[in-house]
Amino acid sequence: MRTKMVILSFLILLLAVLGLSVSSVYCCYPVGDIDRNGVVDMRDLAVLARAFGSYPGASNWNPKADLNQDGVVNMRDAAILLDNFGDTMTP
To answer: Is the full-model pTM beyond 0.90?
Structure first.
């Protein structure tokens, strides 16, 4: 977790030096925190499970569950969530 924070801090600093801004969506929540409560937990896994197999236009599509933004909620997204399971940040 510390390594992720160091990398994130470096990237934010680099963007600031370049005169770019960072969306607050990415500054306050760990990757995989679909419901934006500050922790990657079972609630996020439940949201991903409901959207599993979906794509834009599907009745159960949830773009927040498409963690790698490839247009489908699948095992790759589940792997990202599980890799970050338990990570926390203050929202």
So the answer is: no
